[in-house]
Structure formats: C-alpha cells, structure tokens
Amino acid sequence: MKWLVNMLTSTIGRKLIMALTGLFLILFLVVHLSGNLQLIKGDGGRAFNLYAEFMTTFPLIKVISIGNFFFILLHIYTSAVLTQRNRAARPVQYAYLAGQSTNSSWASRNMGVLGTIILVFLIVHLRGFWYEMHFGSIPTQNYDGKEVKDLYTVVKATYAQWWYVAFYVISMIFVGFHLLHGFSSAFQTLGLNHKKYTPLIKGLGYAIAVLIPLGFAIIPIVMFFQRTDW
User: Fold this and answer.
1) Domain 2-87+110-225 belongs to what topology?
2) Which DSSP helix (H) or strand (E) runs through 149?
3) Which of 31, 18, 27 minimizes the C-alpha distance to 75?
4) Tens digits of residue pLDDT in 51-81
5) How much is the CA Rg of the chain, to the nearest whole Å?
6) Of the given ranges (21-30, 34-43, 53-62, 95-104), which has the lowest mean pLDDT?
7) Which residue in 94, 122, 130, 158 has a CA-CA distance of 20 to 30 Å to 68?
8) CA distance 32 to 36
C-alpha cells in the first residue's frame, strides 16, 4: 500500500491523477451539455425540469454527482501541487528566447490561469443554480400529477441578464482553451502516443474544445433573445 501512496504522490502519479480526473470531467461535460440543451427545446421548461428532477433524486446519479465534486476538487488540488512543485524546481523563471513560444501553445503555458478563471465561473454557476436547486425557494410545476421544482424559471430569469450571458460566454471561451490543451495532454500522460493515433486524438481534442463550449454558450444566448419583455 505504501508504494501506491508514494506513486500517487509523486510528480508522475499526480500527472496521472490530473489526466484521469480531467478525462472524467470532460465526459461529465458531455452529459451535462446534453441535459442543458433541454432548456431550448421550446416546451416551456418541461423536459429540463424533469431532467433536473431525475438528476437530483435518482440514487445512482446522486452518488455519481458526489464523485464528480470529489474529482473536481482532486483535479484542482493536484494542479495546485504540481504548479507549486514546478515553481520550486525552477525558482527563477527563464527569460523567453526568440521563437521559444512556438514550442508550446498559449493554453499549455497558462493552464493555471485558465483553471483559476474556470474555478471562479464554477463557483458563481453553482451558487446560482445548484445551490438554488437544493436549498433555495423554487416554485414547482405539476407534470402529469407529479410536482417538480421549476429550475427552468430560475435559469430563464438568470439568462435574461445581459451581463451574466456575457460572463457565461466569455467563461466558455476559457473552458475551450483549457480543453484544447488538457485533452491531448491527458493522453500523452497516459502514454498513448502513436504516429497513427496521435493526430486523431489531437483532432478529437480540437473538436471537443470547440463543440462543448459552443454548445454551452449557445444556450444562454438563445434564451436571452427569447425574452418576451423587450
């Protein structure tokens, strides 16, 4: 057991944790996006409210949700530890040489900054929706004799505010950059490098970095322009 602890707390072990938790969180984003797209279905929020009710009451989903929060915290903590180790190993930053930036992408050099911005967004987002869903006073809707919380109304009111929509869309741009480097980097950490498959992985990474943030960003934009109080 000690060897496992030593391995997981080593630099290589922590990079492995970053890779695995990162890939899990990307999978979560795909599932979360599929659910959030119910917001623009045009049925007055019925599909989304039923989806939200299922996601917050089904026992297995509740367990997965707890695991998801754990992986988010583990991902953040591991990132902070690796960043601190890198700084300690190189206390004096090297001066940039001409053309040095071509060896790495802007996203790869600023993953810490991107992660911090995304963390701020996540806190604001969870406070506005997750917290309200679980602890706020939310009106209910009756669907076929079943009373469910009307989270759609809360989301609709939030996305009617231009500043929040702008904040959301800008945050998704940062998420895109974070995914752009994080996806391919995770496969490199796992040792899945091959001249035949690496280009496919990078291509998939680009698609994920564009489509997932774009999908999320479209939702508040559409709901903002669907307002009836113009």
Assistant:
1) 3 helical TM bundles of succinate and fumarate reductases (1.20.1300)
2) strand 146-149
3) 18
4) 999 998 889 888 988 988 999 999 989 988 8
5) 20
6) 95-104
7) 158
8) 6
